[in-house]
Batch of 2 targets.
Target 1
Amino acid sequence: MKKRYIKLNNLTVFCRQIFQSYGFSTEQSELITQVLLTADCFGIESHGVQRLMRYHDEITRGMVLVNAQAEIVYETPLSAVIDANQAMGQLIADKAMRLAIRKAENSGIGLVAVRNSNHYGIAGYYTRMASEHDLIGISMTNTEAIMVPTFGCQAMLGTNPIALAMPADPVPFLFDAATTVVTRGKIEVLHKQGKDLPVGWAIDGQGDVTPDAGLVLDNIIQKGKGGILPLGGAGETNGGHKGYGLALICELLTGIMAGGPTANHLSSVAQQAQTSHCFWAVDYGLFGSKAERRSSFSRYLQELRDSARALDCPRIYTHGEKELENSRKVEAEGVPINEKTYEELCLIARERAVDLCSIQLQ
Amino acid sequence: MKKRYIKLNNLTVFCRQIFQSYGFSTEQSELITQVLLTADCFGIESHGVQRLMRYHDEITRGMVLVNAQAEIVYETPLSAVIDANQAMGQLIADKAMRLAIRKAENSGIGLVAVRNSNHYGIAGYYTRMASEHDLIGISMTNTEAIMVPTFGCQAMLGTNPIALAMPADPVPFLFDAATTVVTRGKIEVLHKQGKDLPVGWAIDGQGDVTPDAGLVLDNIIQKGKGGILPLGGAGETNGGHKGYGLALICELLTGIMAGGPTANHLSSVAQQAQTSHCFWAVDYGLFGSKAERRSSFSRYLQELRDSARALDCPRIYTHGEKELENSRKVEAEGVPINEKTYEELCLIARERAVDLCSIQLQ
């Protein structure tokens, strides 16, 4: 698919103006933009600026409340539960992780759960905040149901990413992975390209593995049967019950602990924002010398990168390296935007009366 | 393969006598036996009484020290690091989880890391202890290297299970899964049966997926190249990098945080016990009403079990159900023991001068 490249700075200015046009403050607009564009920098196109249309839709029909007043509904020195009251996901997620970090710095650990929120972008943005404070950061979110349980054919769990960040040198460890085999975004990409799905990604309404991307997407949208398989695939042979269990842990630590609904009761077309997240920060000084732990972990990551490669595989990565390299590339070359996304940006700009010139250049 | 069935009580008496013969106290012998036989009850044969030969070997050659004096080397109100000083894994793991539970009951959370330990049996035994105290329990352990990183062909990470337990009604949620596609035990079973490995379980020394169970086991034993693949399989198409990342998280929270070596520096043939574990207990009252959270989680588990089944799949499980059902079966029918394991038990009994009659009956 043809791509155009827009300078990161120009796209930043543009997105900030769009968010300001809804009534978000300059600071809030900057933060939402940073989360969005960090996804593009990391090479996670599905969670980047191509989501602007979804946010535009959710903000204009009132699922996201621009002036939402989130409130802490339960708190201890180690923990808090926040009711986001339909706030923009990125804004409340940033606040919640800051609170977890403050608690970890004061008490050793901070566990914060959030309910009644919206889509918050990439989980890894928030865990990286903790690692920049020299803490272990953990974040998860539930989403509307998209994953079938093992032996099931009805989507009952979300994409349910698990993210964990730990400081390391020269590159932090930034793990951020959906507990499905793949995200819905990757299925959409293959669908647009007219390609079949690889075996083991998704099932049809009977529960049979299917290569038909269009069918899977239709079923998800229409809340029909079928869905994306858990990490490990269909049945138990290759560990599908493990991915299912990890997704269930995500529901436990987000929806259940926050007092919000689980994935199977969420709907993106409802007016009510009911997504739940969790944000944990752990001071790893709880286990002794931080310098020693950080250096032994950095050494291990290097040993992994230096270990013997499989034939025809040029390189072994540790998690976070690809993201850093892609960020450098994006800063040099611009953000790759496909034509459909570009058209959406133009449409939103017209609706919001925002000047397109910053993204028309280049 | 032919199996004989031994009454659970008889096998309990037998194992206890064996462990007492090495010099463990009655109480210690009972505990080790309980961990071992819980694996058999749960249907995890690989971690049950068939491991007795391995323990016998490790105890008699001094890798496990019967009179080891473990010591707490670092402690805060929320955390501790324990040097096991080559203790029997089950004994120090029980102590460590009890300490984590005590800290969680006093302070809301308890994070305990252990180094210089031995194989500790099933991770799920210890997380269940926490759930029996109405806490969330988490446990992980590293093991000698058996898993290759994505794009690698050298085993650099352990089987590295992640276990999490949460109280629920009528059945607790007991998740306990290796971050490899499968455990070495399952490959051994297929090898004994002369069967090929399913596609996507393991790779040879070049990094190519192989169905040859014997080759994979030989490579592991001889520390040659090749190994078992991470959950998600080879490459990134079906999420192999996710299983690899989860295993890395396990190394971080065990070996790195405990101040012990990572999997690639562990060897079961060395005289020095250097396995690391972690034990976390979290009072989920940190998030508000425990009764509400427990009941909403129980309801969700029931919704999963009741959701639409794939064609020809009679049932959807939640994690912990199969284990409970298998326990009832074992209590009624006895522990299934294959002939090879039975011969090993007889050999150990002769060496330790323990009467075989309890396991010869039935």
Note: The two ends of chain B are 19 Å apart (CA to CA).
Target 2
Amino acid sequence: MSITKKGSFPEWYQSVIFDAKLIDNASVKGCYIIRPQAVAIWNNIKNELNKRIEEMGVEEYIFPLLIPQSFLEREKDHIEGFAPEVAVVTHAGGSSLKEPLVIRPTSETIIHSLFSKWINSWRDLPLKVNQWANVVRWEKRPRAFLRSTEFWWQEGHTAHATEEEARNEVLQSIMMYEDVIQNRLAIPTIRGKKPDHERFAGAEETHTLEGCMGDGKALQMATSHLLGVGFCEQFSIHYRTKENILMRPSLTSWGATTRLLGALIMVHGDDKGIVVPPAISPVTCVSILLKGEDDLVEIEMKNKIALWNKKTEKNFLLDTSYEHSIGERIYHWEKRGIPFQFLFGKKEMDNGIITIKIRDNGEKITTTEENIVEILEKLCDEQQKRLYQRALNHQKSFLYATDSFNDIMKMEDEKFFIISWCGCKEIIKKIKEPGWTIRCFIDENKHKEMISDIINMPCAGCKEKIGKATLVARAY
Amino acid sequence: MSITKKGSFPEWYQSVIFDAKLIDNASVKGCYIIRPQAVAIWNNIKNELNKRIEEMGVEEYIFPLLIPQSFLEREKDHIEGFAPEVAVVTHAGGSSLKEPLVIRPTSETIIHSLFSKWINSWRDLPLKVNQWANVVRWEKRPRAFLRSTEFWWQEGHTAHATEEEARNEVLQSIMMYEDVIQNRLAIPTIRGKKPDHERFAGAEETHTLEGCMGDGKALQMATSHLLGVGFCEQFSIHYRTKENILMRPSLTSWGATTRLLGALIMVHGDDKGIVVPPAISPVTCVSILLKGEDDLVEIEMKNKIALWNKKTEKNFLLDTSYEHSIGERIYHWEKRGIPFQFLFGKKEMDNGIITIKIRDNGEKITTTEENIVEILEKLCDEQQKRLYQRALNHQKSFLYATDSFNDIMKMEDEKFFIISWCGCKEIIKKIKEPGWTIRCFIDENKHKEMISDIINMPCAGCKEKIGKATLVARAY
């Protein structure tokens, strides 16, 4: 690959996702086909999220794809946020529809209309639902995985008796995402709250996790919204307390999408292709068998792999595509990001020796076959940690605390600016011109060290009020 | 429940699916919300199918929801089959589209357009893809699970170098469905081929599994289609053989849908609610704890359940909803079809005794706690077999072999007629009036006994040619 990650990041990203056969273009602009290696990684991410969502006491539902247009219009902010993005069905079954139907851009309105039916008494609360679904938002500037017209996600929706409980759910969700993204995807994130103008349409608070991509641009990795009681009026959601008083429950919603696949590629990928952290790789280790003199070596190897697959929770795969050169075969699996390769021939088999090639640092180590399961366990752990640490160092190299707003205006390179900001509107417009956006008010408890230089400083915009630690970056 | 399965089947079905909270109505006609217990069963069915699909060497893809209308029009039979059923997006992103987009009613056209790109040489074959997706077909007479406007399914699509290989894939797929439906869902099926007028739009052959529902009506449980080379012309799908000759590959497609949930309910359900076979029940056994004098019993019980869940692959659940009466609690779980209930109090705990209530036959047995894991294993096996046998007896009671076409015209009750038919068109029209449909030409090898009375008999329609064993029934 002559295009390098450092040299031309956008071209590198495009070439990696097509070369590693993660994706293909669909015939409708902004839509894509997700191919097996990417689907398998996504399924692993889904499983990791789903386990934790179930532990939060959330139940899985399937809600419909189509929403009457009038539903979207019930919530003023919501329709303003989504109207320009929706795809509308006007004809069906051979005739035109009385009321147009919208393909869900998100399911708040459909789910709230059901909450109104399902919630009557305090006994019905909390009500916690989740669905895995495709949604459609018409993208003007689509980009594979990151901003596609159709995308796949999980959307959680909950209703609680008190705002305190709802706030707790919002935090629990964002921390659940943080756990999966940091500990499985090996991507460090910065947690914070979106400023008013960047909030989800209709939400009181939007919590976000911001990741630092390979080029220093920010990516919103997952969000969790406190909707409060705002949607309750439009959808008549009420419950009776133990004392028989009619109250509005406090609502939340939270989601993570196939965009995480894009983040994974942009953060860990290198000039050879993608790099998949062992914790979420569909295949842990591929054994590349050299063509031997007899078939016995292949049979023996198959047995070994069956044994390893049984003994461990890892996934071992055998490559016997002898028709390709050994170099082609090594590159094939490297491109697809498989964490480890075993190189194997009759000689190695006879001597009980394995050469392990490690994806992320390219190192080769030779070991005896005896303790291979334990060794691989350790190597997985090390690669997982190394990927996280490298991504964290990368993120840190972009952090730039400043008390001057002019620094941002002057800067041409990508940066993760940490500034003090009170929320004054002036600054939003000014930084928009050179392409900067306010990512979030940084969580001050979680990121003490990161914000230490600017905490309690006057706002870099108005220079009057004391500002809050704020992350400013260019973003996807 | 005063509505009985025997007395008024359609009302019974409606009341069961709503009472057991499997489903709710959506705001768009013909669309439904699938609720947690039904989603959990569907997820188990998915897992059972997916395991087998993977073993067939099929890879999972995600294909787009929206298809340009022109794609559907490329295949004449295909467009005729689906045009009256599609939902059409004419507006998106705030303006009208140049070319309308269709919400996929099935994905042949989109996948074949990709096959044309992905298949070049014999090395690219066989190509086997599968996706789990929602599809939309505008239903005039929707019915929950059985015939909903939006439904969820798995669709497999394959391309092979030879027709023989494709035929083999078609058979392997239908047998894979048979395995899951018979051995997991405990539903006996009749395997056969659809006659010309009932085939999938554009297919050369459609293989089907027909199930006998609680009321004696037939339900098409899964289908597998030999598409052959017909679609190749329209989508320019070709490959070069080893000898560099340009050939058309032979295509197949096969699918199973959320309709299987409807079948499960209609076959096994009773007047108390649904009955879920142990092999696919999300919960194997619910332990209903009676309110004791102290909390220790509850803690002890929780520990036991944690241990059982660890020791076995079954799923044990604890019900501590003391606020409801014991009768309500038992009924709650019966309605939802959980295979076993443990009834438990301090007395039982002290004596190490468990009373097990069995869902399908209502029997109660008392046993010591010691060998509970082994006992439950045996009880699961027995209940699974009993459900299958009962369904098989039920199916048999509807079978009715006849050499006279008049028998069908006279019959008012539901029947599974086995007749000899040569394919002559006369008969199709005639039986349509009283509501009968030709389900399939029965697989003569598989169902030797079933067809023994009419094999090699003259066609019951034209009385001239020798007919094939044919299943005729009223159907969903």
Note: Chain A has a mean pLDDT of 94.
